[in-house]
């Protein structure tokens, strides 16, 4: 049975490098994973006052997250952390209290940057929230995709064989991680 994996991209930018890497990850995924992008840009800023009558966008987002077998986060780094839109999505999915849609879902994190550090700060800030949300996040291999502008052609496709091999290995490891968490 294919595992249904929800993919969240931290950038809302049309020509986002991060989304291009996310698309490459989807293409490189092994058989047995069915990946779909879940958009986060339409979610209003979380306001706990709305919880008695949440916007339809929150309800739909929570249903989509709850239906996923696993979650993959692919994010740029904003000011050494994750973009606010991604944090907002985490918050929206986590409520109402005691009914978090994220609870127990195996996860993985890929950070992406034009810079050399590969979004390390974003990667680890995200992991801090994942601990609290009880998303068991794959620890190895870690994925810090740095110097991303040098890894993509004009069509947004990967140009570097080593990167392609690494991202394919990452997805194979994630598939195994999902099965290990589901068994535990
Ligand atoms: C950035 N950028 C950035 N890059 C980085 O490596 N570390 C950082 O802390 C930041 N901080 C930051 C803050 C804000 C508000 C913006 C808009 C950008 C640069 C960032 O990596 C670059 O714009 C990427 O292209 C963003 O990813 P996408 O949109 O291409 O996926």
From TrEMBL:
Protein name: NAD(P)H-dependent oxidoreductase
Superkingdom in the source lineage: Bacteria
Species assigned in the record: Microvirga puerhi
Gene3D superfamilies: 3.40.50.360
Classification via Pfam families: FMN_red
All residue ranges annotated as the NADPH-dependent FMN reductase-like domain in the record: 4-149
């Amino acid at each position: 049975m294919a595992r249904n994996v929800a993919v969240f991209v931290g950038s809302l930018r049309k020509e986002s490098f991060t989304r291009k890497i996310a698309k490459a990850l989807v293409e490189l995924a092994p058989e047995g994973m069915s990946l779909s992008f879940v958009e986060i840009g339409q979610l209003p800023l979380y306001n706990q006052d709305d919880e008695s009558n949440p916007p339809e966008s929150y309800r739909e987002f929570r249903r989509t997250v709850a239906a996923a077998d696993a979650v993959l986060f692919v994010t740029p780094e904003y000011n050494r952390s994750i973009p606010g839109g991604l944090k907002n999505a985490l918050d929206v999915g986590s409520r109402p209290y005691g009914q978090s849609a994220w609870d127990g879902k195996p996860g993985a994190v890929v950070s992406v940057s034009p810079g050399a550090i590969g979004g390390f700060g974003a990667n680890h800030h995200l992991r801090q929230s994942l601990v609290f949300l009880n998303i068991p996040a794959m620890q190895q291999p870690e994925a810090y995709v740095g110097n991303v502008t040098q890894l993509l052609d004009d069509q947004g496709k990967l140009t570097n064989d080593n990167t392609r091999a690494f991202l394919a290995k990452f997805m194979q490891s994630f598939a195994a991680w999902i099965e290990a968490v589901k068994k535990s």
